[in-house]
From TrEMBL:
It holds the Pfam family Cupin_8. InterPro entries: Cupin_8, JmjC_dom. Residues 308-318 have a biased composition (Acidic residues). Residues 196-472 form the JmjC domain. PANTHER family: HYPOXIA-INDUCIBLE FACTOR 1 ALPHA INHIBITOR-RELATED, JMJC DOMAIN-CONTAINING PROTEIN 4. Residues 26-40 have a biased composition (Basic and acidic residues). Residues 1-58, 294-318 are annotated as: Disordered. Residues 41-53 have a biased composition (Polar residues). This is Cupin-like domain containing protein.
Length: 481
């Protein structure tokens, strides 16, 4: 069961979730293979190979605001949380904020964020993390989570591989840039919203518990991202399930943004079930409410049915990868796997089956240590990932293959170290990350890498002018301890 869901056993009104689930089951049974994506009808909320679905998006849209070529940029300290809610969160309008919140630790309200290599190694150097490794620098990260692409390293060993270039293979044509083959994104889910090393950083007063300008939004997770790429590494085009405050500490990021109402034209791998007014996108087989509560879990709570051990084991497995997105989107098992909306890991965004190293598992040597691969057996794609590559050099060929994509307005923005990107749930984005030692807010011992801290919040579904104090229609997330 989702961390957030299993902590909340309060009975809520079902609001017709049983009927929605039944309808969704029929929708899934009637849908064709979800990879059949040759054309789509934007106005009716329909993709080729899919039945129509409600496209109720009512927020800010690049499709409607055709005069703009960028998004708003404002100083973090120039606006209070309530004003920010009214101007951006309530309107579902992305923006860039100049400045970062202070570390927020005890007696450290004026101490700036500074996550150094020494700090990471001192606080969590021996902690094991899961790292994605690509086979060459031309591949995108996040395209799959196969066993050979997922490796387990201590934080210290990862930093050595990333920053010291100590694991180069003399037979590889990429030897001089072996560090660019590694990427640290979010980690396997636990009951703690602060993943390694965010928990350690928080407990020692080095990161804030929340982003203050987020106001009364409820936190889902906090994650650290780190990689290296001088030429730029792409995440691929996808959307997240949460409102994201993305704090860039080092490097630069280029974002290609599309508003949620473009979803029918962007050819996602999943079968869309519903696009809600706040931009939250729900998929057949992983139906969720507008605020992200999974409908099957909500029905179970409403029916006051305890979860079986088998169901809980399945849900715990799902939690490992739900919500992986932004820089990095992880893959899911296909078809009938149910959705667990905890969104613990950029990004990303559905279910995978994880296996640990056992008899017969292949081991890889990194920095002199034998480490197990960990990940899925399949090369599958998350529902929230698009088949379209907006970075394709031959745009004419892309438009010919996906003619409706040409009508999607994209906004390209650059995020620099010391800035925050606020991106509401459902906004599609392709992120290209660049390492730049000179573009950093760190007292720099981090070398030539890009590093970011992100805070994911459950998407608000109460967006009236007076809803700053209570941005959710009920207290499901609020009652989660």
């Amino acid at each position: 069961m989702s961390r957030d869901v299993k902590r909340n056993s309060n009975v809520l009104e079902s609001s017709g979730e049983e009927e929605i689930l039944s309808s969704s089951k029929k929708l899934k049974e009637s849908s064709q293979t979800k990879n059949e994506k040759d054309s789509s009808d934007f106005s009716t909320g329909r993709q080729s190979g899919q039945p129509s679905f409600p496209n109720e998006y009512a927020g800010y849209s690049f499709q409607h605001d055709t005069s703009i070529t960028t998004i708003d940029t404002l100083d973090l300290n120039s606006v209070c949380a309530e004003t920010f809610f009214d101007r951006y969160i309530r309107k579902r309008k992305p923006c860039i904020l100049n400045g970062l919140p202070p570390s927020g630790g005890k007696n450290k309200d004026d101490v700036p964020l500074n996550i150094s290599r020494k700090l990471l190694e001192d606080l969590a150097g021996t902690k094991t993390i899961q790292v994605e490794r690509r086979f060459n620098r031309t591949e995108n990260f996040g395209q799959n989570r196969t066993a050979k692409r997922q490796v387990q390293l201590s934080i210290s060993d990862f930093l050595k591989a990333l920053l010291d270039h100590t694991d180069g293979d003399s037979t590889s044509t990429n030897t001089t840039k072996e560090n660019e083959l590694y990427y640290w994104s979010t980690q396997e889910d636990t009951d703690d919203p602060y993943n390694i090393p965010c928990r350690q950083l928080l407990d020692h007063g080095h990161i804030p518990e929340n982003v203050p300008i987020a106001g009364n939004l409820i936190l889902s997770s906090c994650n650290l991202w780190m990689g290296s790429s001088e030429d730029g590494a792409s995440s691929g085009l996808h959307h997240d399930y949460h409102d994201n405050f993305y704090l860039l500490l080092q490097g630069t990021k280029r974002f290609r943004l599309f508003s949620p109402d473009c979803a029918p034209m962007l050819h996602v791998y999943g079968t869309i079930h519903h696009i809600y007014p706040n931009g939250r996108i729900s998929y057949v087989g992983s139906e969720a409410r507008e605020d992200g509560v999974p409908l099957d879990e909500l029905k179970r709570v409403n029916d006051n049915n305890p979860q079986s051990d088998e169901d809980e084991e399945d849900d715990d497995e799902e939690e490992i990868v739900i919500g992986k997105g932004f820089d990095y989107v992880s893959d899911e098992e296909e078809d009938d796997t149910e959705f667990d909306e905890n969104d613990q890991t950029d990004d990303f965004d559905e279910i995978m089956g994880v296996r640990t190293a056992g008899e017969g598992d292949e081991l890889e040597e990194v920095n002199g240590s034998k480490i197990p691969h960990q990940g899925t057996v399949d090369d599958t794609h998350p529902d929230s990932f698009s088949v379209i590559n907006p970075c394709e050099a031959n745009q004419d060929a892309l438009f010919k293959k996906f003619p409706e994509y040409k009508s999607c307005r994209q906004i390209v923005v650059e995020l620099k170290a010391g800035q925050i990107l606020y991106l509401p749930a459902g906004f599609f984005h392709e992120v290209t990350s660049y390492s730049n030692t000179n573009d950093s807010v760190q007292t720099n011992d981090m070398g030539n890498c890009h590093m970011a801290l992100n805070y994911w919040y459950h998407p608000p579904d109460a967006l009236g002018e007076s809803d700053f104090g209570s941005p959710y229609k009920d207290d499901f997330w609020k009652k989660a301890p």
